[in-house]
Amino acid sequence: MNVKALCGVVLGLAATAGTAHASDIAVGVMAHNIEVVDGKNAGKEASPNIEAQLTFDAVGPAWSGRPHPFLIGSLNTGGDFSFAGVGLEWRWELGDKWRVDPSLGYVVHTGETDNPYAPGTPQSVQFANDHVLYGSEDLFRLTVAVTHEITDRANAQIAFTHLSHGHIIGSGRNQGVDQLGVRLGYAFGE
User: Which residue of 22, 30, 106, 109 lies most exposed, with the fewest beta carbons within 10 A?
Assistant: First the structure.
């Protein structure tokens, strides 16, 4: 099954389960292209992303952990790397007012996939110095967020995201990118 079909299945599950109404929304600012392990992308695409996620009621049987389908949109303030996508988010309670929210998603983006200039030319070197080369317009989005419930409806999150195709849905380059930021959430009521 290809990734686009999987996205259709995720949204179809939400619709057919009779729970396709939104449960909450989160809006935040993510530092784009943070360096976690190595520095090969250091200094590239440093503008932050403004992101919004619309999450739906949990779906699936208990053994699946009852994930929440979501839609995500992220706009890069420097015009380098904006994206939109879908995914599933799990919510694991840690205690009173705290939880961990891991998620897995699929996005399409506006970033650069390859260098358009001939290898070794000054233009090619400069382009590679300025841009992360993602190698595919399709990327996986892996996120872990720590959420604190401020009230019954409002919450705050610290979220870490990795975006990459992992040589699974793309070919060639795989210069993934990491983001770290904060989001404020609001749960819709009945």
Answer: 22
Task: State yes or no: pLDDT of 8 exceeds 70.
Answer: no
Question: Which positions ≥6 away from 151 have C-beta within 8 Å?
Answer: none
What is the residue whose two structure tokens read 């809006």?
27
* DSSP for residue 118: P
Phi and psi, residue 62, nearest 5°: -60, -40
Q: Give me the pLDDT at residue 73, please.
A: 97
CATH classification at residue 164? 2.40.160.20
Q: Are 128 and 152 in contact (CB under 8 A)?
A: no
φ/ψ (deg, to 5) at 106:
-130, 135
Q: Give the CB-side neighbour count of residue 39, counting CA atoms within 13 A.
A: 2
How many distinct structural domains can be found in the chain?
1
pLDDT at 108 over 50: yes
d(CA 72, CA 68): 13
Q: Where in the sequence is the domain holding 36, given as residue range(s)?
A: 3-187
Q: Please, what is the end-to-end C-alpha distance for the chain in angstroms?
A: 36
Q: Is 128 helix (H, G, I), strand (E, B) or coil?
A: helix
Question: What count of Cα atoms within 13 Å lies in the side-chain half-sphere of residue 111?
Answer: 37
